[in-house]
Amino acid sequence: MAETTTGRRERKKAQTRQALADAAMRLFTERGFDNVGVREVAEAADVSLSTLFKHFPSKEALVFDLDADIESALIAAVRDRAPGQPVLHALRDHLMQTRTAVPTDNPTFRLVEATPALQDYARRMWSRHEKALAAALAEATGLPPDDLTVTGLARFALEAPTLARTTADPPRAIHDLFVLLERGWASTPLAHGEDRRGEDDG
Predict the structure, then answer these.
(1) How many whole angstroms from its chain centre is CA 157?
(2) Do 99 and 145 lie in a common domain?
């Protein structure tokens, strides 16, 4: 009986959370993020303001309701990789599949692109996953969580999708960035000693 009650309570919480996220996206899309208050979102979802803040710590969080799922997927990509698959390749493949597939006509994408506050929040949210990813990488490699090898990889990996989205082929760009990470700067002209500036000047 206790399990049934717990299950019902969890389902109710999930339904309330979804109702808030749906109401927020509808209002934000119709009127713009800056023109809608959290009280209006709560009223549209037929819950109290205090209930809203139990599920979402801020107005911006209403747009990014899958934050915890994204972090869990990042960690799972490392922990649950195929036997023998290098950590770098598992992380690369996960980011290629999940961080480049959002179409530009997606309502959430358009809303974030049009709202500086949401762009800021999205970047901070993505960076917050760095610590959790570094811990998963440390566990996979046997290195300490604060070792620069794992903290550096975590940061680089999380920056790769941002850099890739500015290119014509984001999945390919992520692949190339991970090749750079795997092979190092020695494979690029940046490692060479010669100075090519001014060569075309005669």
Answers:
(1) 11
(2) yes
Identify which of 115, 98, 94 has the alpha carbon closest to the alpha carbon of residue 32: 115
Residue 131 is part of which domain span? 67-189
| Domain count along the chain | 2
Does residue 98 sit in the same domain as residue 146? yes
Spell out the SS3 assignment of 68-79. HHHHHHHHHHHH
**Does residue 139 fall inside a structural domain?**
yes
Contact predicate 170/97, CB 8 Å: no
Residues 80-108 have pLDDT tens digits of 999 999 999 999 999 998 876 656 667 88
78 token code pair? 């490392």
Q: What is the CA radius of gyration of the chain?
A: 21
- Report the distance separating Cα 137 and Cα 94, nearest Å: 14
In a domain, residue 119? The reply is yes
CA triple 63-65-68, angle to 5 deg: 140
> Is the model's pLDDT at 43 over the cut of 60?
yes
| CATH number assigned to the domain comprising residue 127 | 1.10.357.10
Residue at token pair 């811990």: 135
User: Residue 70, Cβ neighbours under 10 Å: how many?
Assistant: 14
Joined together, the tokens standing for residue 35 give 């023109």
43 plus 88 within the same structural domain: no
Of 96-100, 103-107, 171-175, 184-188, the one with minimum mean pLDDT is 103-107
